[in-house]
Amino acid sequence: MERITGAEALMRALEHENVDVLFGYPGGSIMPTYDALYDHKKTLNHILVRHEQGAVHAAQGYARVSGKVGCAIVTSGPGATNTITGIADAMIDSTPIVVICGQVGVAMLGTDAFQEVDVVGVTSPITKWSYQIRRAEDVAWAVARAFYIAKSGRPGPVVLDFAKNAQTSMVDYQPAKADFIRSYEPDPDLNEDQIRQAAKMINDSVKPFVLVGQGVELGNAREELKAFLEKADLPCGTTFLGLSAIESDHRLNKGILGMHGNLGPNVMTNQCDLLIAVGMRFDDRVTGNLQTYARQAKIIHFDIDRSEFNKNVKVDLAVHGDCKKTLAAVTALLDQTTHTAWIDGFKPYEEKEYNKVIDKALHPKEGALLMGEVIRKVSEATNNEAILVTDVGQNQLFACRYFKFTKPRSIVTSGGLGTMGFAIPAAIGATFGAPHRTVCMFCGDGGMQMTIQELGTIMEQGAPVKMILLNNNYLGNVRQWQEMFFQRRYSFTPMVNPDYELIAKGYGIPAKTVVERKDLDAAIQEMLQTAGPYLLQCAIKEDDNVLPMTPPGANVNEMLLEC
Amino acid sequence: MEQENSIKLYTFIIYSENVPGLLSQITAVFTRRQVNIESLNVCASSTPGAHKYTITANCNLAMAKMLTAQIEKKIDVLQANFFTDEEIFINETCLLKISTPVMLENKNVCRMVRLHGAHIVEVNPIYATIEKTGITSDILSLYDSLKTLGCVLQFVRSGRICITKDFTEHLDEYLAEREKKRK
Ligand SMILES: Cc1ncc(C[n+]2csc(CCOP(=O)(O)OP(=O)(O)O)c2C)c(N)n1
Ligand SMILES: [Mg+2]
């Protein structure tokens, strides 16, 4: 055993957890740790962000595409409070991250010391676990426990609040391991009854419909899902976060669920006789009016988190467990069958949506550029193999609708929290989490400015983010709601925009603006062929609307195709 | 369905590891869902190392289920369950400070104390202290009758403690099951 400082112990503990990248920003209360980091630069690649919110979103982007735990490190007080949005985002979207904050020494705790904030108090409601390390002796244990909690069961964020005295005092370091907490059951035993009942209900069903959520990707159960769907010929729809859990063009993938999803899956939700939800949580953006949601159907819910059962939607059968195991177990008991007539029933809705919405969005003949056509062209130019990172707003909704997926872990978007400013830092994180893949980031002119300072991180790292700014000179999504539900009273949604190309160039990032449709293909090619980062600004039609749409609180099957 | 929606007083019994900060996390589960906590009692349980929370709150059955599920999800919570009054033995304690001059003047004061099976634990020329242990309604009945007699100077009630009418100790069984999984 070796006698080292608590800060050095943190370095060893992070290395022990196979951390290779840290996103962070230094400051007073975390300085001893940054001092220790100076000697670990070879193993722990620290990426200096430009704002602590960026560190957390970057850790999220890293985690989402790599399947590993993302890690952020910041100072106390304002450094810590700047991470709150990212932590809340990771909580609601089940993203495994560990955020390490500096904290004043224990002797100063509770005295309103300089840059003291009750970080555990503030973050407890938005973390899976939040813990204050007060002694160097606790570092190894706390780090092991933090990573175990963040990645096991339903993943989520963990905060370690690292008191300064614990960073500087000496400890006999020994690596710790965490794989059991008696009050925490991340991998529940399969319940044979539930498995048998689920299989029977599916085998008895004439019109089954599967809802695919992010749980499938979090559980690395893509193959199990596919086997499950294909054996019993089960059509499915996906949530935004579940988009890359199955190939976009898989014959059983009927599209996106929810408010701005596809017509077929939403209408058929209210026509199926069995709804099978896998690793999703019946968010109100997916269900619309709960009083009329799938009332005709029996409902089975597969989830690893017991507290999700019957939370929003009352289910007939809960199948508790890791869906990698539960899906495989149920599949073994399924009849090999087909549901051709039922699946053909999706077609009229697909055609209707194509004619009324999709064709117009993808193949406009004239007028300003549309988001849909840009997004689909970028997707196709990457052979539909890229990672999609989105911001929030119309750019997000269009991107999720028109980007296509063939590879796992390819969608990074802020689903539950809807955090504007998510895209740039999350995309930076994605380039570190999947260094050999193309990362395409779509962002609006509003959201771009919320974390625009991270262009500095992109510059410094040469992070190869392909940024597509869909500039409509509006807070477009809010403008759309104002148009539809507030009598076109455009209260503070027009955006006075800077010259983004010039800004990018100020950061040394190559940039181009496309206004004319005829220039789009070449510009996309140039962006993808330019090594490193690139900003492609597209001048988008100002008053376009994302359609179809289920108005808030309306019935899931009552989508507007025009407005 | 009717049962699902009718509002009732439920008693939540929660066991957790003895770690700081959990109490506020548990109460936040209630307040976030607009459920008021009526009473709260926290102390070490009979199982070494485990803390016991006894919380009462008015809500419907679906909410009671949701609250326990959300509480149990906290990493350091061992178990969370809820009960109706029929499923548990309940106890509460109260202390009353009453005016000695009024007590001496009005015989009904002492009669009420005896009738309710309460004890006088201290008397001095100014006030007397009365203690009563029982179920909520008995305690409130004592208080109401003494208040009518105009002698109450102070009244305090404890939170509820209770014991389930079950034959098995679920926590011990749970912990034994869990220990088998320790690697
Ligand atoms: C941090 C934050 N603030 C406010 C909002 C509310 N909001 C949702 S979409 C949106 C407009 C986004 O505008 P822009 O980034 O230009 O994207 P567009 O919808 O035009 O594509 C706003 C303000 C939000 N989601 N997040
Ligand atoms: Mg915009």
Describe the structure.
The complex is a heterodimer of chains A (563) and B (183). By secondary structure, chain A is α/β, with parallel strands linked by helices. Chain A has 3 domains: 2-173, Rossmann fold (3-Layer(aba) Sandwich); 192-347, TPP-binding domain (Rossmann fold); 368-539, Thiamin diphosphate (ThDP)-binding fold, Pyr/PP domains (Rossmann fold), CATH 3.40.50. In chain A, 37% of the residues lie in helices and 17% in strands. Chain A has 24 helices and 20 strands. In chain A, strand 6, helix 7 and strand 7 form a beta-alpha-beta unit. In chain A, helix 9 (192-204) packs across helix 14 (323-332) and helix 17 (371-381) crosses helix 24 (520-529). The mean pLDDT of chain A is 98. Chain B is α+β, with helices and mostly antiparallel strands and 183 residues long. Chain B has 2 domains: 8-83, Alpha-Beta Plaits; 89-161, 2-Layer Sandwich (Alpha-Beta Plaits). Chain B has 7 helices and 9 strands, in the order αβαββαββααββαββα. Chain B has helices at 2-5, 22-32, 61-72, 100-105, 107-115, 136-148, 170-181; strands at residues 8-17, 37-44, 50-59, 77-83, 88-99, 119-123, 127-134, 152-157, 161-164. In chain B, the strands form 2 sheets. In chain B, strands 5, 6, 7, 8 and 9 form a 5-stranded antiparallel sheet that branches. Chains A and B meet through loops of A and helix 2, helix 3 and helix 7 of B. The complex binds thiamine diphosphate (TPP) and magnesium ion. Magnesium ion is lined by residues 444-446, 472, 474-476 of chain A. Thiamine diphosphate (TPP) is lined by residues 391-395, 418-421, 444-447, 470, 472, 474-478 of chain A.
> What would CATH call the homologous superfamily of the largest domain in chain A?
Thiamin diphosphate (ThDP)-binding fold, Pyr/PP domains
Coarse morphology of chain A: globular
Radius of gyration of chain A: 24 Å
Distance between the termini of chain A: 70 Å
Helix content of chain A: 25-40%
Low-pLDDT windows of residues of chain B: none
What's the quaternary structure here?
heterodimer
Estimated structural class of chain B? alpha+beta
For the record, the CATH architecture of the largest domain in chain A stands as 3-Layer(aba) Sandwich
Indicate the proportion of strand residues of chain B.
35-45%
Low-confidence stretches of chain A: none
Q: Return the CATH topology of the largest domain in chain A.
A: Rossmann fold
The H/E string of chain B reads HEHEEHEEHHEEHEEH
The count of helical stretches of chain B stands at 7
